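Example 4.3 (complexes with small molecules)
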Amino acid sequence: MKLPKVVRRNRPNASAFLELTERELCRIVLDIHDGPVQDMYAALSQIDALQKKLVSPDDQDRPSPEAVARSLTQIGALIQNALWSIRNFIGAFAPPEFQKRDLVSVLEGLIIQHEELTGCRVELAITPPIPDVAPPVKIVLYRILQEALSNAYRHAGTDRQYVHLYSRSDGVGLEVWDEGAGFDVERVLTQAPADRRMRVGLRGMRERVALVGGTFAIESRPGQGTHITVWVPGHAGRQ
Ligand SMILES: Nc1ncnc2c1ncn2[C@@H]1O[C@H](COP(=O)(O)OP(=O)(O)OP(=O)(O)O)[C@@H](O)[C@H]1O
Ligand SMILES: [Mg+2]
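Answer. The structure with adenosine-5'-triphosphate bound is encoded below.
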């Protein structure tokens, strides 16, 4: 398959991008460990101590109802604190990151990461202009590209993948393809896998696209590569 005539964009520096995500990841792991995990440990040990006192054979050791209430208040505060930290993480990482960066930069970042982690080469073609899209649409395109690249890497037996992002008057189109092993789409989509493992990738792509009112198509044949075509409405809700 030939790439269409397009404008290629300069990509951000790959190692700088990875370094940033690696640093971010370390910080998140440490924050979670030092924050909510420690609060949960403390809450568990207080529950343990309270339990032991409540079943003590010695009347003297058994706590009064007021003392139990005080312990429960402390345990509640620890759990509350852990929840607050976790909610803060969720709030800090998911939506704003996507909202700040435009669709092209989000998809480029993903491709760079995929290339670095797998050693594959992804030919990215962008036909401008790419309109702003609402965050849910951006997330759908991001997740589909992520899964399509991962499938090509895991199943196609080739180290080269192709991506084309373009706009139409009514939305944004994304095509992802490879020239690898291919597969019998009908058989894969209708038959349960032999190993009883759930296959969520292709089904997830279809469902995500349907959620934002777009269309999804997959073409593949053994020995002839795989081609995924997605269209999503891009003007219904701009950022
Ligand atoms: N690009 C591709 N090249 C070759 N075969 C593919 C490709 N994409 C999908 N397939 C085939 O379709 C099957 C279903 O893909 P799907 O993404 O739904 O599940 P999966 O990748 O096996 O598991 P997961 O649930 O982790 O995504 C794959 O197991 C593979 O046989
Ligand atoms: Mg998959």
